[in-house]
TrEMBL record, chains A, B:
PANTHER family named among the record's database cross-references: HOMOSERINE DEHYDROGENASE
Binding positions (NADP(+)): I7, G8, V9, G10, T11, V12, G13, T14
Entry keywords, A to Z: Amino-acid biosynthesis, Methionine biosynthesis, NADP, Oxidoreductase, Threonine biosynthesis
Record protein name field: Homoserine dehydrogenase
Length: 420, 420
C-alpha cells in the first residue's frame, strides 16, 4: 500500500483524492498495489470541500510522517512549494507536482536533488494530455526536431472566438473573464507567461536545456486586431498562441508568441479551450496530442497517472539532459537570431510615395515581401498588410524601428510571426 | 548491453536496425545501456538491403543464441510468427512485434506465456503514434469510456480524396494502388479487416476483452458513393472508417465501419494517410493522438521505443484484463444490439406513394427519421437520403430487409452509421 498526502486541496487536489477513491479498483489493478489518499493540507479548514480525507493546515503532518510515501504538491506559487518539495525529497518521499511556475524556475535543481526518488509532473503541461509521457517513452527513439504547442486554453478560446465569430479582443476578454476562463488580471495567460512555463518544461525534456522564462522570447495576444484576423483568413492562416521549441544545429529556439499558421495544419485545427501539442521526431515525423489543458478532473488524471507510475516502477526515470548527448554543448538561440517569416500590419497615409518608402526600408534590411494587400481606413489612411519571406528577427525589428522613425507609419506596426 | 535480433528485415526491420545505429547516442542515454542490433533473419539473402547487420535465413541463429536478449518479430503472417514468438518467449527472450494479425488472434495466449518477460507491440496499432503507451500509462487513472480510431491510412486517404476532390471510389482506389497506398488486392484495407485487428488490440488493453475478428462487426468503405458524400457535406458530416470500442454497462461494443461524423469533431479533421485515435476517459475527457500510421521509420520508431522501455524496466508491465475489475464479467455486445443513428440512401421510383411506403416501414420498426432529402436521378428515379434518431441495429436491418422485399427500393439500400 502507498499512502498519499496532498498539499493544496483546491479543485485539482479534490479531484486527485476523489479519483483515487472512485477508481480505486482499476487503479489498484494497474498500479499493482493499493494507493490511499490519507491527508490533505489546506490554508483554511473552515472552507467546505468535497473530500473525505483528513485535512490539516500543517504541511509537516505530511512531511514529518514517515508513513506517507508520495507527496502531491498543488499549492501554486513558487517559494513556498519549493521549500516543501525540497523537504519532501530530502525525506525520501516521491513527489508529484502540477506546479508549472515552480518547475519553470527550479526543475533541474529539484530533479537533481531527487536523484532516484520519483519526481514527476505530467499535469504541469497541458493538463490531462500525456505529453511528457509521450516525449519520454513513446518517442524515445527520436531526436526531437521541434515542438509546437497550444498550451493555454484561455488564449486559444479567445483567438478561436475572434476568428470564428469576429469578436474583438476587448469583448472576448470580458467574456472569457465572465466564463471563468480568464482571471481578473489576465496578464499571466494573455501575455504568454503561462505557456512559457510549460514550454520550458517540454524544452528541458526534449533538449535538456536549462533556461528561465526571463531569457526567452515571450509575446502575448493583446495586440491582435480584426484587421489581422481578416488578413489571416484571406490567406488561409489561423492565428494561434504557440509555444515553440526547435533545434537548429546546436542551438535551441524557445519562444512563445502568436503565429499565423496554415489552417490545414493539424494544430491549427485545435479550437476553443482545448490544448494541442505537435511534436516532430526525426524518425516518427509529426505526431500530435490533443485534450483538455485544464480543469480539475483532467489535470488530476495526469497527477494520478504519475502516482500509478511511481507505484509500478518504484524509482525515478531518467529525465535530465534527455536529448543532450555526452559532451554536446547546446545553447539557447539568441532571440534576435531567430529566422522565420513575418506578417506586418502598417497603418499608413493613403498617398503616393508611401509604398516606395516602405519598400525601400525593407530592401535596405534584406527583407523580401511575399504577399501584400492594402485596405482603406477612414480619413485617408490605409492598412498595409504584408508577409515576408524567411528573414532574421533582428532585421525585421530594425526595419520596424526605421518605419517608425521615418514617419511613414502612423501608429506602431503590428508584427506576427508565421509558422509553416 | 542488450543484443537485438530482428526477424523480418523488410522496410520496418531495416529502419529498426538503422535507428538503433543512427540514434545510438540518445538511445543509450535514454535506455541507460547500449542496445545493439546484431543479426537479422530474411528469406532471401540475395536481395539488396540497406542494413549493416549480419543476415541469415535461419531464425534459430537468433532463437538458440543465448546472447540475444530481445527478438523483434516483423515477419507478417500468423502461424509462423506465432511459433517463433512462442519459442522466443519460452527461451526467456523479450519480444517486440508489430504484427497486428498475430496479436488479433493470439495476444492473450502469448501475453500469458510471457508472464514477466516483456512482450510489447506499440507499433502494431497506428504505427508511430504512442497510443498503447497513452492507454497503459498516460490515461491509467481513467475508466476508458470509448475509443474511436482512424487506423487505416489507405481508407482515410481514399475517403479524404473522395470528400475534398469529388473523386469516386473506383478512380481513387486505382490512384491509391498506383501510389503504393493500397495493395493489388485491397480487401484487407478497404474491407476494414486491418483496422479490426488494431481495434481488437486496443479493446484488449482498454477493457481486457478477448474476442477474435470473426466475432465483431466489420464493414468496409466499398459502397460509399458520391451521393453519400454530397449528403454528408450538406449536413456538415465527414465520412471516416472508424474502429470503435465502447463500454455500455458490462458490454463492450467493438465495431469497424464507415461513419458519418460531425466535421467539427477533432477526429473528423484527420485527413489523408494520417491516423488519429480519440480516447474518452471518465476523468480526462477526450484526448486525441495523431500521426503517421505506417511507413518504415514511423513504425520502427514505436518498435525502438518498446526496446528502450524494455531496457529501462527489465520486465513486463501489467497488461491483461486492464480494465476488467476482479470478479467483473464483461462480454461483447451482440452486433444486433448496437444502438446508434443511421444514414440511409434509398434508390426509389420518383412517384407518389413511395414516401408513404418507406415511412410506414420505418414506423413499424420503431425507427424515427431525423433528416430527409430527395434528389432526382435519371429515368424517373430518385435518391431518398435520410438519417434516423437513435435506434437499434436489428430494427434498422429488419427495416432495410422489408424495404427490399416490398419492392419500394430499386437497388440495395446503402446504410452508414452515424457517430456524434
Amino acid at each position: 500500500m502507498l499512502k498519499v498526502g496532498i498539499i493544496g486541496v483546491g479543485t485539482v487536489g479534490t479531484s486527485v483524492a476523489n479519483i483515487l477513491i472512485d477508481n480505486k479498483n482499476i487503479i489498484t489493478a494497474r498500479a499493482g498495489k493499493e494507493i490511499v489518499p490519507t491527508i490533505g493540507v489546506v490554508s483554511n479548514l473552515g472552507k467546505k470541500r468535497d473530500v473525505s480525507i483528513k485535512l490539516t493546515t500543517n504541511a509537516d503532518e505530511i512531511l514529518e510522517d514517515d508513513s506517507i510515501d508520495i507527496v502531491v504538491e498543488l499549492m501554486g506559487g513558487i517559494d513556498k512549494p519549493y521549500e516543501i518539495v525540497k523537504k519532501a525529497l530530502l525525506k525520501g518521499k516521491a513527489v508529484v507536482t502540477a506546479n508549472k511556475a515552480l518547475l519553470a524556475y527550479h526543475r533541474y535543481e529539484l530533479q537533481e536533488l531527487a536523484g532516484d526518488i520519483p519526481f514527476e509532473f505530467e499535469a504541469a503541461v497541458a493538463g490531462g494530455i500525456p505529453i511528457i509521457n509521450a516525449l519520454r517513452d513513446g518517442l524515445s527513439a527520436n531526436h526531437i526536431k521541434s515542438i509546437q504547442g497550444i498550451m493555454n486554453g484561455t488564449c486559444n478560446y479567445m483567438l478561436t472566438r475572434m476568428i470564428n465569430d469576429g469578436v474583438n479582443y476587448d469583448e472576448i476578454l470580458k467574456e472569457a473573464q465572465e466564463l471563468g476562463y480568464a482571471e481578473a488580471d489576465p496578464t499571466f495567460d494573455v501575455g504568454g507567461y503561462d505557456a512559457a512555463h510549460k514550454l520550458l518544461i517540454l524544452g528541458s525534456i526534449a533538449y535538456g536545456i536549462d533556461v528561465k522564462p526571463e531569457e526567452i522570447l515571450i509575446e502575448g495576444i493583446e495586440n491582435i486586431t480584426k484587421a489581422d484576423i481578416e488578413f489571416a483568413k484571406e490567406f488561409e492562416y489561423s492565428i494561434k498562441l504557440l509555444g515553440i521549441a526547435k533545434k537548429v544545429g546546436n542551438e535551441i529556439e524557445l519562444r512563445v508568441h502568436p503565429v499565423l499558421i496554415p489552417e490545414d495544419k493539424m494544430i491549427a485545427k485545435v479550437d476553443g479551450v482545448m490544448n494541442g501539442i505537435s511534436v516532430v521526431g526525426d524518425k516518427v515525423g509529426e505526431t500530435m496530442y490533443y485534450g483538455a489543458g485544464a480543469g480539475g478532473d483532467a489535470t488530476a488524471s495526469a497527477v494520478v497517472a504519475n502516482i500509478i507510475d511511481i507505484a509500478r516502477k518504484g524509482k525515478g526515470s531518467p529525465m535530465l539532459g534527455f536529448e543532450k548527448q555526452p559532451g554536446e554543448k547546446i545553447t539557447l538561440m539568441p532571440k534576435e537570431n531567430i529566422q522565420t517569416k513575418y506578417y506586418l500590419r502598417l497603418e499608413v497615409a493613403d498617398k503616393s510615395g508611401t509604398l516606395a518608402k516602405v519598400a525601400t526600408i525593407f530592401g535596405n534590411n534584406s527583407i523580401s515581401i511575399e504577399n501584400m494587400m492594402q485596405k482603406p481606413l477612414k480619413d485617408s489612411k490605409a492598412n498595409l498588410l504584408l508577409t515576408t519571406h524567411t528573414c532574421v528577427e533582428k532585421d525585421i525589428l530594425k526595419a520596424i524601428k526605421e518605419l517608425e522613425n521615418s514617419g511613414v507609419v502612423l501608429t506602431k506596426p503590428n508584427m506576427i510571426r508565421i509558422e509553416d
